[in-house]
Every structure is written in C-alpha cells, then in structure tokens.
Design brief:
Layout lengths: L1 H24 L2 H15 L4 H6 L10 E4 L5 E4 L3 E6 L3 E11 L7 E10 L1 E3 L4 E3 L4 E6 L5 H14 L6 E3 H7 L38 E3 L6 E3 L4
Antiparallel strand pairs: 1-2, 2-4, 3-4, 4-5, 5-8, 6-7, 7-9, 10-11
C-alpha cells in the first residue's frame, strides 16, 4: 500500500508540473502566433536581389547625369552606324540637355566615335577613347553646342564608357557581313522549296530506288525516311 501511495504521489507531482508549464506557456503562444504573419510579410524583401540579377551588363540605358554646371543630362543608347573590324565604332546618340534653371530640355544628337575593345566574358564593348562630334540641337545657339559636348564628355567617366556587346551586334547592318568559305567547311546556302498548295517534303538518299507495291500499279521509294 505504501508503494502504491508513493507512485500516486509522483504521478500527481508530474501532472502538477505539466499544468504549471502549460499555464506559463499559454501567454507565449499568442505572441508566437502574432509574430508568424510578420515573418511571412518580411519574406518578399528578398525580391529586389532577384531584380538586381537582371540588370544589363552595361548598366542599362538611358543614363542620367548632373553636369558640373548643374545641367540635367540624359543620354540614350547609341545607335551603331559602323564597327570596322570590331575595332573602331561610329554611332549616334540622342541627348536631352536641360541647363540649370531651364524649364524645358534641349533635345538633340551627337556623333560618337572611338576605338573599341571587346570583353567576351563580360559581353561588353569599351569605347574609352571617346570623341564627340557633329552636335545637333535645333534650340541651342552655336556657341552653346561646344558647352554641351564638353559637359557630355566630362560626365561620361571612363568606367561608364561601355555598351553591351549584344546591343552592338543587334545594330550592325547585316548586309555588310560577307560570308567567306573556309577550307573543310561547306557554307553553301541550302536549297529552298516552295509550294502554293499542300505538299509533303520527302527526303531521298541519292537517286530513288523504286519497288513495286503488291496488288496495284503504284511503286514506293525504298531509300526514303
């Protein structure tokens, strides 16, 4: 009887401890539950990192600058006119130039010319030796054009004088590319077949080898797919 009484006492003690723990833990549960939605809302904060991963290799266009005189400068992606031997580029860029205190920007274009270097791994074309010429801003006076060119040149730091290789290739006039035959490589254009009515293209390995079809006057070519 004494052993049974002792076991009952220990069981009661365990139940009491569990009850105390549950009472002490009950106020914590609403706090934890209240913090869960906050953690769920904080998850979207990781999205800007994914957006940054899609940034173009050249930083993107157009590019905005504030010149030393306080003018607002906006340079749009240069349009490639020529890229001789992939070493010298000639391009034209649209520019928006707003002098300090002016209400409306002056819109125009400049000619961009430079020797280039290509970084294939980074897919970038560098034109650090920049030369700007032939500025055309209809609303500016002739003496203001040189100021615009100087401010564009100073605003474009050497590290910014790059453009994505894919942008350059997309602008090149494909008619200027002349295919050349290479020894051992057959580069002849394939034949083109055209039909105004429904048709099926049948490939035949060499001259057709005909075989009769039983029980009719038709024949089949055995050396086709």
């Amino acid at each position: 009887m004494l052993l049974l009484h002792s076991r009952r006492s220990r069981n009661r003690a365990r139940i009491a401890v569990a009850t105390i723990v549950s009472l002490l833990g009950s106020p914590i549960a609403p706090l934890v539950a209240g913090q869960a939605p906050a953690a769920a809302k904080a998850a979207p904060a990781a999205r800007p990192a994914a957006a940054a991963a899609t940034t173009p290799p050249d930083g993107g266009w157009p590019r905005a600058y504030t010149t030393a005189s306080g003018a607002a400068l906006l340079i749009y992606q240069p349009q490639i006119s020529s890229w001789t031997d992939q070493k010298h580029v000639v391009a034209y860029a649209a520019v928006s130039y707003t002098p300090k205190g002016a209400e409306k920007p002056a819109l125009g274009t400049v000619k961009v010319e430079s020797d280039t270097r290509v970084a294939l791994d980074e897919r970038l074309v560098s034109f650090s030796e920049l030369k700007l010429d032939e500025p055309s801003f209809p609303t500016l006076q002739r003496d203001q054009l040189r100021t615009v060119v100087d401010e564009i040149t100073k605003s474009l730091a050497p590290g910014d004088r790059v453009i994505a290789l894919d942008r350059v290739l997309a602008n090149i006039d494909m008619s200027m590319i002349i295919p050349k035959n290479v020894d051992g490589v057959k580069a002849d254009p394939p034949p083109i077949f055209f039909s105004k009515t429904a048709a099926v293209l049948v490939n035949i390995d060499g001259d057709p080898i005909w075989a009769p079809i039983p029980q009719n006057d038709l024949k089949t070519a055995v050396n086709t797919n």
